[in-house]
Structures are given as C-alpha cells and as structure tokens.
C-alpha cells in the first residue's frame, strides 16, 4: 500500500533559460497580446453594430409612440365633436333627404327642396347635445272605449 502512494512532489527550481526559450516566451506574449487586441477590436465593432441597431429600434419606438399619440388626439377630438348620450337613446344621424330619379322633375329649376326646417332644427339641437334624443310619444288612451250598441243598428241585425 505504501508503494502505491505517490511520492511528494517537490517544486523544481527553474534553471537558466536559453535564448531560444526566451524568444519563444516573447513570441507567445506578443501573440497573446495580439489576440487580446483583436478580440477587443471585434467587441468594439460589435458594439458599434449594436449601437446602430439600438438606434434604429429607438427611432422605430419613437415613431410608433408619435403615431399612437396622434391617433389618440384625433380620437379625442372626434369624441368631443360627436354627440354624447344624454338620455336613454343614442342620437341617430338622419340621412340626407333625396328624391328618386323617377320623382325628379324635367327641369332642375322646378326642383322643390326636400325636408322639414323644424325637424332639421330639432335634430341639430339633439346633435349639439342641447336636447336629448327621443322617440315619439305613443298615443295612450286614459280609459277603455265602451262598446255601445245603438237601437237602430240592433233592429237591422
């Protein structure tokens, strides 16, 4: 068992180096320095490319944010001008009143204007949120109609 154990290693004292060994070490140092410089140069080059891509990404993000801001501003302006919901119903824009081609007269001078001025004013007030949009009130009877059979009618049947 004692034979199997390795003898303790003693540190060898470096002897005198030959000129060849010194030259080899110097060349190795120069090669290592050259490798380190080339590695540093490639890292700088990659950093430059990364800067370009980062700049491009920042410009894209900036343009996207600007586009979103413009979109938000436009939407806000449209909502300010759009009629709001005042009552139970929503404002419905009436379409333009036009005549069909069969209804048009021979001469456009004899063309009468379509529409109702009072209704147009009423719709304009609704659109500008001054009056709430409404449905026409349905006619409701206060009492039930009594059915009465007249004598004259009774004699006929």
TrEMBL record:
Biased composition (Basic and acidic residues): 1-33
UniProt key word Nucleus: yes
Keyword Nucleus set for record: yes
Subcellular location: Nucleus, Nucleolus; Nucleus, Nucleoplasm
Alphabetical list of PANTHER family matching this protein: GLIOMA SUPPRESSOR CANDIDATE REGION GENE 2, RIBOSOME BIOGENESIS PROTEIN NOP53
Family (UniProt): Belongs to the NOP53 family.
Coiled-coil parts of chain: none
Organism of derivation: Dasyornis broadbenti
A molecular function (GO) term: 5S rRNA binding
Entry GO CC: nucleolus; nucleoplasm
Residue ranges of the region described as Disordered: 1-39, 70-96
Taxonomic superkingdom: Eukaryota
Keywords annotated in UniProt: Nucleus, Ribosome biogenesis
This protein's encoding gene: Nop53
UniProt-recorded name of the protein: Ribosome biogenesis protein NOP53
An individual GO BP term: ribosomal large subunit assembly
């Amino acid at each position: 068992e004692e034979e199997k154990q390795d003898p303790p290693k003693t540190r060898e004292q470096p002897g005198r180096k030959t000129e060849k060994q010194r030259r080899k070490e110097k060349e190795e140092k120069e090669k290592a320095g050259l490798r380190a410089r080339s590695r540093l140069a490639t890292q700088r080059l990659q950093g430059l490319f990364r800067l370009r891509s980062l700049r491009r990404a920042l410009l894209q993000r900036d343009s996207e944010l600007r586009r979103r801001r413009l979109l938000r501003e436009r939407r806000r302006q449209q909502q300010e001008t759009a009629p709001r919901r005042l009552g139970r119903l929503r404002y419905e824009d009436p379409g333009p009143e036009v005549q069909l081609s069969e209804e048009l007269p021979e001469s456009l001078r004899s063309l009468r204007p379509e529409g109702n001025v009072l209704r147009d004013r009423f719709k304009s007030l609704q659109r500008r949120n001054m009056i709430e949009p409404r449905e026409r009130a349905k006619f409701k009877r206060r009492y039930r109609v009594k059915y009465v059979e007249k004598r004259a009618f009774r004699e006929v049947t």
